[in-house]
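Q: I have 366 residues here and want to know how they pack in 3D. Can you give me a structure?
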Amino acid sequence: MQFIDIKAQYKLYKEEIDEAIAQVLEQGNFILGSQVKELEAILAEYVGVKHCITVSSGTDSLMIALMALNIGPGDEVITVPFTWISTAEVISLVGATPVFVDIEPETFSIAIDQIEDAITERTKAIMPVSLFGQMPDYTAINTIAEKHNLPVIEDGAQSFGAMQNGKRSCGDTTIGSTSFFPAKPFGCYGDGGAIFTDNDELAGKMRAIRTHGSLKKHYHPILGLNGRFDTIQAAVLLAKFPHYDKEVKAREKIGARYSELLRDCCVVPKIQKGNTHVYAQYTIRVPDRDLLAQQLKSQGIPTAIYYQKCLHQQPVFAYLGYKKVNFPEAEKASEEVISLPMHPWLSGEEQDTVVQAVRKTVLANV
């Protein structure tokens, strides 16, 4: 059994993917080729914004967003400690300081009622994370941001395709960011990411930053980086895109079935009102997570833990001075969460095997 079955997807779309890659090989334009522009136009329309800028990774997409907003030394950016390190890493890499806010226990999203208390005169942006496949309450977050004249950057690395009150992930904030890492819901065959915005000025600046601060050859008015997207990866995504809505629906169906069968023995994902969920991970909470992982492994069932240690507990962020008790909900989540096999091709039989194993282990230890 596969935790995420990328090979199954390739076998289904093999002819289209192979043809798309072959076309790039024949053209020989491997960086920012015509397929990149085509993909950007399609994804901008899909998300519902004016601009999509594809980049070299989801991490770089966040970094470029911060650079475009002129965030740097002396500035603060509010985010959460329960996420992958990229979220806070890029804040530090531009010289700013990550300021953490705890999460809501049911959705793992940023605790909205704590955001304003974290805002200072140094705050220059709010960066919520759309964790595991659904969006936090961006209506409330954007209201707070507007009150304090702050931009909002959505880290939507795990939520591409999710919706909230009719708006898609990456399309409801100042800047939206996502990842095309192979294991993500919409993944390519290497690293990749994208940035989305309706702001013309920011879009132009982010395009320049992506190519060493330049939009005209040999002219560099601002500092940038090498954040360009490979044409082959764009071709892969173009081949996959026509199937993506079908995959999202399959994820929703499998996630709903998991929740129906497991809700009486463990804490299952709660879908926030107005949201859809793409289940980048199907994550449950149990009191003895490590025992469950061992039992499932012994039966050939793979699991993963996102995330075993909160960011404020990582050595690299020790300088921030946070204590173990500063973010009780994030810390509790890091001790209880475990993710089960989830992908659009998970069969009913495989899902039943997972469910039975989880139920047997959890109920035996109640």
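Q: Anything worth noting?
A: The chain has a mean pLDDT of 97. The CA atoms of residues 101 and 345 lie 36 Å apart.
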